What we know:
- By secondary structure, the protein is of the alpha+beta class.
- 56% of the residues lie in helices and 8% in strands.
- The chain is built from 12 helices and 5 strands.
- The protein has helices at residues 13-27, 34-45, 51-66, 75-90, 108-114, 119-132, 171-182, 196-212, 218-228, 237-248, 252-266, 271-286, and strands at 137-142, 145-151, 157-161, 167-169, 193-194.
- The protein has a 5-stranded antiparallel β-sheet, sandwiched between helices.
- A hairpin with a 5-residue loop joins strand 3 (157-161) and strand 4.
- The longest helix has 17 residues, at 196-212.
- The chain is globular.
- The N and C termini lie far apart (48 Å).
Amino acid sequence: xxxxxxxxxxxxxxxxxxxxxxxxxxxxxxxxxxxxxxxxxxxxxxxxxxxxxxxxxxxxxxxxxxxxxxxxxxxxxxxxxxxxxxxxxxxxxxxxxxxxxxxxxxxxxxxxxxxxxxxxxxxxxxxxxxxxxxxxxxxxxxxxxxxxxxxxxxxxxxxxxxxxxxxxxxxxxxxxxxxxxxxxxxxxxxxxxxxxxxxxxxxxxxxxxxxxxxxxxxxxxxxxxxxxxxxxxxxxxxxxxxxxxxxxxxxxxxxxxxxxxxxxxxxxxxxxxxxxxxxxxxxxxxxxx
Length: 289
């Protein structure tokens, strides 16, 4: 799967528009295809990821699934151990602190190629491989550290950490992950299955955070916001973030127009907040004088 660095020129506008329409349509399917959505996210960063590349990534997930035994004896624990042995041990999928500094760690095709990534992308690999093999698998969006679950979320189940090569997690282990990330306690809602669109939004949030810490990567932050805004469910504040980013990028008129539009929405519930946003819009227009 050949890749291109994020600094290289982006795709032609028509190709980008078509890809984003495909992303929006896939997000509105009754059963969204998580791997396809993650690959379409990756294609925004890597213009070299064409249709053949998308197919190659899906074929690799199929190939890995074919290496798993079908319905192993031993229930959820057996599935988790088999995935850990295949993906964590034999194939070397895992992560380290250095992976948080790389955009590639949030791009599914690169994670499949490098076998390194963030917890959530490694979990996507695990879920997609396990799902293809018939496993009862689901994602678990613990605060600060995504993991996977096998079995019945309300009954017999086990959790595994793909970032650690598939280490099985006790309740105490999961509680320590939450405490380390938030200082709070593990609660039952935290271990509920995450739906595909929640996962994709979290992937995009990670990309936005990566780019926000690197002002020279504002174009990456912008496309991550654009994709997030195509999801049927997303925080309204993303519109404000996009408008403010446009202003920071020097696109003053477009940013001011979006700030004004957002202020009209906010005015119905927060008049003072709306007025503050209008002042931001006026300041952006003044930058052209």
